Structures are given as structure tokens and as C-alpha cells.
What we know:
The chain has one domain (64-394): Nitrilase/N-carbamoyl-D-aminoacid amidohydrolase (4-Layer Sandwich), CATH 3.60.110. The chain is built from eleven helices and 21 strands. The chain has helices at residues 8-30, 92-108, 135-138, 143-153, 155-158, 171-199, 253-256, 288-292, 314-317, 331-338, 340-343; strands spanning 64-68, 76-81, 83-85, 116-119, 203-204, 208-211, 214-216, 219-221, 228-232, 234-235, 246-247, 269-272, 275-279, 301-306, 308-309, 351-356, 358-361, 364-367, 371-374, 378-381, 389-394. It has a six-stranded mixed sheet with strand order 1-21-2-4-5-10. The termini are far apart. Keywords: Hydrolase. This is Hydrolase, carbon-nitrogen family protein. GO terms for molecular function: hydrolase activity.
Amino acid sequence: MHNLYVPPIKIFIFLFLLGLTGFGAHAFHRADVPTPSLPTIPTYTYKAEEAEVSLAEKTWSNIVIQTNGADRKYGNIISMQVYLRSSDFAKEEWWAGRIEELLKTGKDANIYDRKTIVIFPEHIGTGLVFLGEKESVFEAKSWKSALDLFALKHEADLTPFLPSDVSKPGAKWEASFRLQAQKMADVYQKTFSALAKQYNVPILAGSILLPGPKVVRGTLVIDPKAPLYNVSVPFAADGRVMDPLVKKTVLTDEEESFVTAGEVSQDRTWIVPGWKVGVFVGHEVFHAALYDRLKGRPLDGLVSPGFSFSKMNRERWKDYIQDPEFMSLSDEDVWIKHGLPKHIKTTRAVESVQVFLQGDFFGETASGKTFNIRDFVNQDESGSSKEPRILNLYF
């Protein structure tokens, strides 16, 4: 057994240093020195068992039909101004029901014939990204917050769909749409295909955000790993998906963060019995160069599915809209004064139609005024932005 001997001097030094350390710590604790804190990261909280969302009640008892011109049996373009609330996208049957209500109203009024085409608004299918979500998502204070919450709730599933640069703005939004893309495409195609066949009318089904959309033997096909486009999809009266799919080329600020612009050179002429129309999606109507590509082509009309929030970014569009009065115009007047009606005579088209999606989306109100102009001068505008409405233009 070893003899463990420690000299007294070493014991004294150890106890002295131990006491000194304790005194320093006590003094530091008593000193009035602020303790540094790390920045807090905002998080969303939600219950494991969330409440189901409820269907929003209708605020209208009937749908008004406005008519521009008389039925001369040459055909007509019908604008379906849909009114939606965020929660309408929660269930397939709710969303489809809002759309069919308008088509049924038109049929009951006997305004369809073999030369009718029907136009729905831009982004009518985009909210299907929230299909099946619960109350927490639909209680978000903005669509951006709703997308953020969706991405947080489905974070584990987003990884395979994230872009290579995960730090870029909108990366998780892009992945969210790719994750939901097949479900969105299936519901969108099933709904509009069935309605086109049921009511026997060709339908330009507004637009929807989808990755790599294309038409294969009359069917809409997507690629979840491909770039995301805001695409307008036409359906024939027999329910087939038609070419051309028009991919929006002039994007808004919000779209630019995660959506890819379509090619300027793409085909945008939709041909159906009785009609050849040029299709412009939303803010494309401000881009003069797009009309130049239609010069000399046989066209009957120009149509545009549109969507706009209530405050237009004036700086974003002033280079397209070179007008000293631009800053003082209302958003509704900008679309009519500097969109289709301004540029239509660049083409051989005669009729112009733009239809806007209306509603309340996560507390943000849509704007834009649905309108049509017959023979360049006979103009009709929607009498309300607070309800669904049908505008019927006879050729």
C-alpha cells in the first residue's frame, strides 16, 4: 500500500485558489451586467388533432348574367367570374361546386351553343395546394403565412422536392407545390374535364401552378422535379386536354421568387369550333412584344384569365405601361386602358375579354374588373366584385 502524502503548502494553495474562484463568481453574479440573449426564431404551433375547416357560406342567392350584343348564331365568349374564399380549396367537392354553379347557371339560361367558349380566371387552381389541410392553415393571416405553415407541417416530406439552392427565397414554397403537384393536377383535370363534357363547351380553365406540364394524348401530365409554371390549360368539349398550354411569361413579384417564366416564343393561339383566340395570362397583357408575335395571324379575339390583389406594384409595371397618368389610375382602369384593349389592333382580333378571380384569400382581397369589348368599342364591365358573375359577349 502506497503512502499518500501531500505537503501542507500545496493544500494551502489549493484552498486559496478555490476561495478566490468562488469570490469572483459571486462578484460577477452581483454585478449589474446585462446577460446576452440569442434572437428568438418565430415558430408556428398547431395541435396534433386539428379542427376541420368549415365551408364558407354563400353571400349571394343567384348569379347575374350580363350580356354584350345579340345572339346572331356566330358564337359567344363567356367569362366566368368565380368568387372563392380560402377554405373553398380545402375539399375537392367545395372547389368544384363553386365552379359548376356558374356553368349550371349558364346552361339554365340557354346561352351555350356549338360555337361557345368559356373562360375561367387565372390561379383558379393554385389554391389546391392546400387540399385536405386543417383549420390552422386557413386561419393564417396571409397566403404567404399559409404557405409557410404548410411547409413547416410537411417539412419532412419536402426534402426530395427542394431546389438545389435551398437558401433562395421561395424554396420551400416551390417544394410545397411540387409535393402537392400530382394531387392538384388530378383534381383540376378531373373537374374541368368532367364539366366540359357535361356542359358540352370548350373551357379555358384559368390557370394553375404545376411543374413541367404537358399534354400527352389528351391528358395533362406533369413532372414533380421540373420547373414550376403558372400554366393556362384548355379543355375540349369532349373533356380532352388541348394544346397549347400557355405558360405565363410576365411574372409578378410574388411569382418570380419561385415560379419559372414561360418562353416568349410559345404558341398562344387556341383553336376551337367557331373561334381562334390568342391567350394571355394575367400581366402578360401589358407586354407589347407578345402581341407583335400574333401580327397577321387569323384571330377572332383575345382572351385573358386574370388575377390581381388590391394594390398593384406601380414600380414593377411602369416600364411596361409608359403613361404619365399611370400612377393616378385605379388598378381596374390600368387593366382596361393598358391591357388587351390597348394592344388588340396590333393583331387581327376584334373581341377582347379578361376575367378576374374574385374573393377573400387569407384576408387579402382580390381586385381587377372583369370586362369584355365587342367590335373595339362596345364595352361591358362586371357590375360587382363581391360575388360570382357571368359576362356573355356575342360575336
